[in-house]
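Example record used in the benchmark description.
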Amino acid sequence: MARPHTVDIQGLLSGTGQVLKLEDRIPIEPFEGIDFPQPAHVDLTARCADRILMVEGTVHAEAEGDCDACLEH
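Model output (structure tokens):
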């Protein structure tokens, strides 16, 4: 099982305009016949705007599995 990922956002919600940058490589467990040979690269920015938590960024992951149409890997 992949490790849990916890982020403290209390500083963001204080209304001080703080920005939180998150960059990590997160392993993904295989599911429904799809394998993830490398950890996903997560690059996120979080901030609070008008009492709304805004999270923007990208998650890049490589997936491998069999094609449902041709059954090739």
